[in-house]
Amino acid sequence: MNREMMLDSIDVPPSEDSEEPPGLGGTIVCDIQPSRQTPSLLHDLPILNIKKDSLKLNSFPEGALSKKFREVFFPDVSREQWMSWKWQLKHRVTDHKTLSKFLCLTEEEQRFYESKQTIFPLAITPYYLSLFAFNGFDHPLRRSVVPLEHEYDVSDVELTDPLGEDHDSPVPGIVHRYPDRVLFLSTMYCSTYCRYCTRSRIVSKTMKTDCLSERWEKGIDYIKRTPVIRDVLISGGDPLTLPDETLKMLLTKLRNIPHVEIIRLGSKMPVVLPFRITTSLARMLKQFHPLYMNIHFTHPDELTPETREACRRLADAGIPLGSQTVLLKNINDRVDVMTQLFQGLLTMRVKPYYLFQCDLAPGTTHLRTPVETGLSIIKGLRGFTSGLAIPHYVIDAPRGGGKIPLLPEYLVKKDQCSYVLRNYEDKLYTYPDVGND
Ligand code: SF4
To answer: Alpha-carbon Rg of the chain, whole angstroms?
Structure first.
């Protein structure tokens, strides 16, 4: 591996200093403070400047909220700068003082910082902040990335490593749980930190780039000498926060291993920083087929013109796209919200893939629903919308049990020669089981 390149580029995000955002001047603009009204869904708003032929090569259509936020809080920042993913990373909000310039923090949000023992840091890209800054305190996207004091309430069943990944790690940075595939933890950095992150024990932690480089080398070596591995999922942290050249180097190393048939990328960048999906990134990625991508979506308000364009670029590069969604209390735990999300994703050529029961990560009790909620959401989808729009609802079992799918009770009774089944309208039907062995 080209060690020089690794040392220069891995996991070196732009400065995380709490830089004063340009044009802000340190004052709260009170007439645009959020209201408690129910937020309108973004795709109901007029889409500005979306004419494709007017776009420059790396330009994106600009959603109404994003445009308004840029004009109010960053009046000196051009549309081109705003759409630079490096500018977005450099200006991500990582501290409470800066956050309070964009949002009126509630007492529950303030008290998270008063404790002084931050367990999982804050980070939000200006783009993602724009999607909820003008809405109420309870806006679903705000609740998924702005911490509350409840994060300090760690219940007895919550675990630092909820999925027992460390136990299934033959070398650092590799999780080998299932027979034919591995998880490759490429970086510990994300542009935006989700408050329910399963890997909060490692994500956001700093590691010297030479240690990370050594870890990559060991991971690639493990995959090379383990021929049973035919599928590598690169996740983290978010691999799309890596520079193009670094990511290309990793993909090249993996693609050159003869028994690695498919490579998958797990990312939230098309959602929290869609500008990362430059045409040059899409061009680079298409060299590594068969390459799949799973994108972490939470709520239909994320289906903005910018994210739609990011997914279009990836899909046009021939990358099959799937979504992963964590079921979250008071954020997306309703049938109508999930229907809107999954149907919207299909229009963006993203297949809803997994709906996860919220893992037992520390301090996430306030975000977790009962399992029954997930089952009733699946029941409310099945039969009422296209099967393509329905993800697998799974519990990733604690302590390394792996993903276990759950379905509502469609099988009512079974005997030697028939099955009594319940359909989506709760009507019963008998299927005579007359097939031969
Ligand atoms: S994007 Fe994934 S890894 Fe990063 S904070 Fe969110 S859940 Fe964790």
So the answer is: 22
